[in-house]
Amino acid sequence: MDNKEIRQGVSMNDKEVRRELRAAVLKGEQMVVFLSHNGERIKGVADLSNDPERIKINTEEGPVWVPISEVESVSRVIRLRIEGKTED
After folding, report:
1. Mean pLDDT over each residue of the chain, to the nearest integer
2. Which superkingdom, per the lineage (predicted)?
3. Which residue has the higher pLDDT, 24 or 12?
4. pLDDT per position as a tens digit, 32-62
5. In 3D, which of 35, 42, 70, 72 has the Cα closest to residue 57?
6. What pLDDT is recorded for position 88?
7. Which residues does residue 77 pair with via DSSP β-bridges, in sequence order?
8. Contact 57/48 with Cβ under 8 angstroms?
9. b or e along 38-58 (b: 16 or more beta carbons within 10 Å of the residue's beta carbon)?
């Protein structure tokens, strides 16, 4: 299964997108944004945008501004830090 197939039928409304974006910005998390019009994925670190209708994502290629209306869903990449010894 490719990501398009897995993500099919899972879409977020603007309020949910904004909530996930705020959480990612506050925690400095990476995120993956899935666009509704072409299925494209954009991966990067969320940042504040002066434009309330667009989200800003700092990608490896540079900043990208995406209209919230084009966002199908947002996935945050959460890193877990393990302290102490672990057993293999």
Report:
1. 80
2. Bacteria
3. 24
4. 888 877 888 999 998 888 888 888 999 999 9
5. 42
6. 64
7. 30
8. no
9. eeeebebbbeebeeeebbbbe
Please name the residues in contact with 42: beta carbons below 8 A apart, sequence gap of 6 or more. 32, 33, 35, 57, 59, 64, 66
Mean local confidence (pLDDT), 73-83: 79
84 burial class (0-12, 13-18, 19+ CB within 10 angstroms)?
Answer: exposed
Q: Could you give the angle at the alpha carbon of 69 between the alpha carbons of 66 and 75, nearest 5°?
A: 65
Contact by Cβ (8 Å): 84, 50: no
The pLDDT of residue 74: 85
- Which residues have CB under 8 Å from 24's CB, separation 6+? 30, 31, 45, 46, 74, 76
Distance of CA 17 to the CA centre of its chain: 9
